[in-house]
């Protein structure tokens, strides 16, 4: 007997001593409990890697991740079926105590991909199960040898004999895995037992429960009592007679003022249900649930507990890079916590029901759930579909987090199955067809901004796209979300929406030396807001701010600020008086400081305002005298459960004030100028800067120690003006160079200060729409090591993804990250918002740039091309730029122009800014003495 069999035998023996003829169901695991706790079984596969010989495999697992068979992505599956459609043979021995002979023993599989044939001691225990994402079980009592070892044999076919199962589950936009990937266990219960319950607990306190029993005798009673999760009873015991001729008994009860379940307050209760013979308890189970009412109101909206709600949701696959679809409770908690941290309130189970523990976590932490029957773009046939709808609902019916069922996805809808849902769902929840219109719902995927506007303005269906803003690389998700959400937030017909998708689906290739494969060459799986190991992308923080239930519209802190802030309560069930607010006055380190930590000058708490959901009001900050001498103001909101909702940050000092404190110092010598061979050279405090007098561009820079390869600028990024001439002259201790152009440039003036700083004042005037606008310089990318800057970060921004960044001093090393394909975050290259100053670390000498003008974007190089033109935003020539306007980014299926007002090109010389000049004042330090 090996170690695993010994462990199982001991576990069973110990259980039998404590629970002989148990009143409660005992669960005995034959496999491990999750991806991190597994048990070795004997295994052989007939095709692919490691085929043809018996070996060991850890259960639960997907066999591809254990080095067996071959990997296939869903879109490849039909083409690769001859090679990938393997059969795996599992064997496992276990012992059963003699004392269990009088019990009922069921063998439960939480999930197996795909066709599953089960034998115990050489005998088939029931029909082959088809469908890879569902719990199924067999009564194996009559097949067991009590007091002896038993042999469990499981044959798993990766390709189903029913091709509608293959089309629903394999021909899809997700990885096609195989094997016993969820736990396997025994359920031990009395001969007469409660099989399951179905609960409908409404917000008015009414409680209805169907109790399904097996093998009961005449005269039995069903008794129930409700308590909170700490065991405090809610009301009294209630009961009903159990009729052996009927499938179920129905119990009704009325409670008084229960605490309701919602994502904001996920209050739960439990009901203890007993099957009794007189006073004797034959069997009992305990089921958790929540009081809440969900309803769809035609031409109106989606309501929970009488309040209209909007889904701030995301789609989620059950996935982990090193274990495929084999998951764990710890992973479920991690994912739900990340969603809650993004201020989401909903998740869609795309495109299959998740592990049971995920729904337990959405219940306990609080998220609305759409639970889904598989059918990516093809449906199960009616015969197998009916069985799977039943398995889906009887497992998950009691989860208060589930508010909607989805009957397949994107055309994978078998309409004949619609009548099956109310048969098993005592709550009769709404059923939808994602992507389609069904009943009073419209869930069209990947709409344009114009479609959403028309659907919510001129339509009559409750609209909530179950997939929108399809993330790809760094596009979508947060990019475009604010415009979409503004119209969704305002429209009565909107029930919100669900972003695609939560995580990049990258699998560790055991056939590729551990390379994480996201199928990015085909742009199939680098779609996440987070990476395979949950690395956070920039959109994570954009979503967090846009979906913050405490909403603060755009504002600036000026010297006239009186501490009064306008807040909007975008919660559904929470008064802002239940939240906490704390402010901080911050000073930042200077560019030459070795540390980047903020210095907190003062902090305090603000009295939480009494603002009901959907209303606005004011928060008052009691700031000290001289608060305006600080660099920035931070405000943090915390929810009633201690979760940080959002930290907002605003500069207090202007860029001009900040620049004055940095660009200082005097020199005993004056700046000088010399001109030779069409080159003008300015010198001061150890720095020499040379200009080409024929085109006005910087040709070279050097300090006392080294050349600095900063040159070939400034050039206007678009419609570059024609250089005419330059003149230079002494002004005090400084040297001034004035450039003259024909065209958009109206001013280009350099001042070489005696302290060695080079000041640049420039302005220009443009007409029309532009992808971007500013000035460019060149610097060799291979010589850059990193950047430190004061501005909004640490992530780059796009024109249609500005929110979510923190105003602070940030630092990051150079990288060439392609978002979603590799995960060196935050990405180095791109546009950076509201630069006050920056220090570019190079192999030559640090280059310090200070802006005395607000709202200047720092552009650092050009990201590598993605494999989709929609997610390749426009960038100017050159590689270090100072921008007034930057480009938006698109999604997998939509160009930026289709995503709303923020996603359009910038319009220059609009009628509202008839004579506006664009430009800035910048200071450069290339390494003075």
TrEMBL record:
Sequence ranges assigned to domain Glycosyl hydrolases family 2 sugar binding in this UniProt record: 53-190
Signal peptide: 1-22
Assembly information from the UniProt record: Monomer.
Enzyme class, broadest EC rank: hydrolase
Keyword Calcium on entry: yes
Family: Belongs to the glycosyl hydrolase 2 family.
Substrates-to-products reaction catalysed: Hydrolysis of terminal non-reducing beta-D-galactose residues in beta-D-galactosides
Domain Glycoside hydrolase family 2 catalytic: 299-512
InterPro entries per the UniProt record, alphabetical: Bact_Beta-galactosidase, Beta-gal/glucu_dom_sf, Gal_mutarotase_sf_dom, Galactose-bd-like_sf, GH, GH-type_carb-bd, Glyco_hydro_2, Glyco_hydro_2_cat
Alphabetized UniProt keyword annotations: Calcium, Glycosidase, Hydrolase, Signal
Keyword Protease: no
Cofactor dependence: Ca(2+)
Documented EC number(s): 3.2.1.23
GO molecular function, one term: carbohydrate binding
Protein name, as recorded: beta-galactosidase
Domain Glycoside hydrolase family 2 immunoglobulin-like beta-sandwich: 193-292
Lineage, highest ranks first: Bacteria, Pseudomonadati, Bacteroidota, Flavobacteriia, Flavobacteriales
A Gene Ontology term for the protein's cellular component: beta-galactosidase complex
